[in-house]
Amino acid sequence: MASSQLPVHALSSASDKYPKPQGVAFTYGTAGFRTKGDTLESTLFRIGLLAVLRSKKLNGQTIGVMITASHNPAIDNGAKLVDPRGEMLDASWEQHATLLANAETTSELLKVLTGLIPELKIDWTKPSRVVFGRDTRPSGEALVKALKAGLEAMGCHAPLDMGITTTPCLHYMVKGSNLKQEAQIKYGVPSEQGYVQKLATAFTKLMKGKSPASPLIVDCANGVGAVALAKLSPLISDILPIRSICTNTSDASALNHSCGADYVKTNQKPPPAVQEVMEKGHRACSLDGDADRVVYYYLNPDDGKFRLLDGDKIATLAAGFIGDLVKQAGLSDTLKIGVVQTAYANGSSTQYLQHNGLPVRCVPTGVKHLHHAAERYNIGVYFEANGHGTVLFSEETIDILNAHEPRSPAQETATQHLLCLVDLINQAVGDAISDFLMVEVILAHKRWGPVEWDQGYEDLPNRLVKVNVTDRFAFKTQDAERRLVEPKGLAERVDAIVNKFEKGRSFVRPSGTEDCVRVYAEASTRVGADELAAQVATLVSDFSNGDLF
Ligand code: G16
């Protein structure tokens, strides 16, 4: 526990080079720290310190650090820690990250650090291992330097720099690095190349005997997804020709600008660059800036209208397909499937899933919440409506599948398909690329195009609005973010508005990644959903301007 062994001098002089900007308060939010990139150097230095503590605490297991602001504009940046199984940092450690990031001076920082070592019962003699990566943002380079300085000052030897990479690839890498040799052979080589190869192999096996798919348009949001896709695409081009759009990673200002999954979901229309090349009835998809979320869409062949196939539609597609495979494998009494959603899930999707006998849980926004909830099932399907998600197969499930003795060729095939899906679908975190490969497999097996996929249920018209407020932290929620508890009295006013709309539903929550409050609304008609969102947004804005109460 020897906090005295902390390299105080090295830390102190290194920390002085990364002073905390005055008057800024950092919070470890929905997906780690996220704010203007040029204010984050001190935070990255301190994340380096925490990553070393976390690794030592976990007996020298590899911890990941991803530097990205994902869907945010290019000027922002951010960072999050990844725990050894490739999942998000344990929630109980977020407060330590926030505490370290906000220490005003070097001596305060050292005081916090010295206090954490005994508090967290960290054995300083343990080794520490860290792997890190970043997206394409220009501020990333300086942030990597600050992170490395923090790691070095803590005596972390040879941290592994993955360079520019996608968030899911970093998560894959962390998980793989912590596996024992035998498990690692099954999992795949923990490297970017190993990941690409793993996806391509699983996809090829699952597509065996299927006719080549029609070309898929992929909007890469001018982000790192373009780089990753350029490596994968040649390996599968004869089965799935990919037409990558928005691949400009050299112009920083292009990142997520008028493109990407968030643009499509929020504006409910294709990015202009995709619109130019889209044909009626053909599918396209959009990734986000760090390639960890994806949404599909198409233009209706009859009227040319835009139709969104978002995270909810992906969840229902995946749960249905995997459920059928489990039945065909003869394992439906053994393997239970569950779906995890957030309050943003369209009411129709929840109803559809429940109608099909699937248990559905609602948890607060953030992959970290969904992932843990999904781990409770044999097969946990989790997707946020915005396109973040994956399908988790528990270790027990994988063992059951491997040990299963099929009684017919059909059972054998279904079992093998399930095992291949375990390889195709990122088990550490949602991956836009792995997810769209899964969607393509399902569509090919069902011989469906986007129209058939879309027919399961009709989304209730909905609208998502951002409201800029003076203090988003004044907004507090409960019941998986479906109800405001603060500011007092606001929830009742939202209710009063909602009650005026047929099938109305609306909720208000502070974003954990942007400086705004989000308002979600759905109703039986397009006009109703838009009007409901506008009225609730005005209410929130009036409150923020001090015009209420
Ligand atoms: C992050 C999280 C997601 C979350 C999104 C929006 O995504 O990983 O789970 O849905 O932020 O969160 P909020 O509404 O709190 O801003 P990304 O793609 O930005 O990393």
TrEMBL record:
Domain of life where this protein originates: Eukaryota
Protein name: Uncharacterized protein
